[in-house]
Amino acid sequence: MYGKILRRSIPNLFTLSNLYVGFLSIFFAANGDFKNASTLILIGMMLDSMDGRLARMLNAQSELGKELDSLADVVTFGVAPAVLVYYVSFSNHGMIGLLVAGMFPLFGAFRLARFNVTSKNSTRYFTGIPITAAGGLLTFIVMLKPWIPSIVITTSFVILALLMVSKIKIPSFKDVPLPKYGTIITILFGLMLYYVYRSSDFPYFIYFAVPLYVLYIGYRFRKSKGKQKSK
């Protein structure tokens, strides 16, 4: 009994960790530490890429987990990137900048709500860009601020917000074998590490997240190899 409860709780722990790094990102952004704020959002992407697949792998899917995942995504990939962009680019515009920044989590929340009520219709594509991808891309663009003009961040902000609520069909990665899908997230994560490796003051949460992610990818890769040999 306790084993079953623990097994069903594991994906939710990753989801809650995703939510927590989103909260930490907001804290760092509000204190002017944009490097750590960006890093934490990308760590959230890594955690978000794991919870759903862990739930399927452990046969621990639940309505609670789905709702919890949506709430975590709104914070980590909606509110946190919006706060980051506000302090990096929009704060000079006062209240107008604040109001504009707030549109990103609003659009993201609408996109998630629409996904939750229509996701059963198709697993082959998404309608509109997922909030995880939008928030992650926006964060990565903000990380490039020293080398790009502010107009690029502003334009990307607007485009990504509109893409979330658009009806453009985005291919789903749910059916992509994990080693290939994991490679995408691993590349983003590697870029993040390159971004922060020279800093002596980056989130200690990374020491917890990296080993978990490496073990997860290794286990899934080994499992997929086992399936191929058995065929």
UniProtKB/TrEMBL annotation:
<keyword id="KW-0472">Membrane</keyword>
<dbReference type="InterPro" id="IPR050324">
    <property type="entry name" value="CDP-alcohol_PTase-I"/>
</dbReference>
<dbReference type="Pfam" id="PF01066">
    <property type="entry name" value="CDP-OH_P_transf"/>
</dbReference>
<keyword id="KW-1133">Transmembrane helix</keyword>
<protein>
    <recommendedName>
        <fullName>CDP-diacylglycerol--serine O-phosphatidyltransferase</fullName>
        <ecNumber>2.7.8.8</ecNumber>
    </recommendedName>
</protein>
<keyword id="KW-0444">Lipid biosynthesis</keyword>
<dbReference type="InterPro" id="IPR004533">
    <property type="entry name" value="CDP-diaglyc--ser_O-PTrfase"/>
</dbReference>
<feature type="transmembrane region" description="Helical">
    <location>
        <begin position="125"/>
        <end position="142"/>
    </location>
</feature>
<feature type="transmembrane region" description="Helical">
    <location>
        <begin position="12"/>
        <end position="31"/>
    </location>
</feature>
<dbReference type="GO" id="GO:0008654">
    <property type="term" value="P:phospholipid biosynthetic process"/>
</dbReference>
<dbReference type="GO" id="GO:0016020">
    <property type="term" value="C:membrane"/>
</dbReference>
<feature type="transmembrane region" description="Helical">
    <location>
        <begin position="148"/>
        <end position="166"/>
    </location>
</feature>
<dbReference type="InterPro" id="IPR043130">
    <property type="entry name" value="CDP-OH_PTrfase_TM_dom"/>
</dbReference>
<keyword id="KW-0443">Lipid metabolism</keyword>
<feature type="transmembrane region" description="Helical">
    <location>
        <begin position="94"/>
        <end position="113"/>
    </location>
</feature>
<keyword id="KW-0594">Phospholipid biosynthesis</keyword>
<feature type="transmembrane region" description="Helical">
    <location>
        <begin position="202"/>
        <end position="221"/>
    </location>
</feature>
<keyword id="KW-0808">Transferase</keyword>
<dbReference type="GO" id="GO:0012505">
    <property type="term" value="C:endomembrane system"/>
</dbReference>
<keyword id="KW-1208">Phospholipid metabolism</keyword>
<feature type="transmembrane region" description="Helical">
    <location>
        <begin position="178"/>
        <end position="196"/>
    </location>
</feature>
<keyword id="KW-0812">Transmembrane</keyword>
<dbReference type="InterPro" id="IPR048254">
    <property type="entry name" value="CDP_ALCOHOL_P_TRANSF_CS"/>
</dbReference>
<dbReference type="InterPro" id="IPR000462">
    <property type="entry name" value="CDP-OH_P_trans"/>
</dbReference>
<dbReference type="GO" id="GO:0003882">
    <property type="term" value="F:CDP-diacylglycerol-serine O-phosphatidyltransferase activity"/>
</dbReference>
<comment type="similarity">
    <text>Belongs to the CDP-alcohol phosphatidyltransferase class-I family.</text>
</comment>
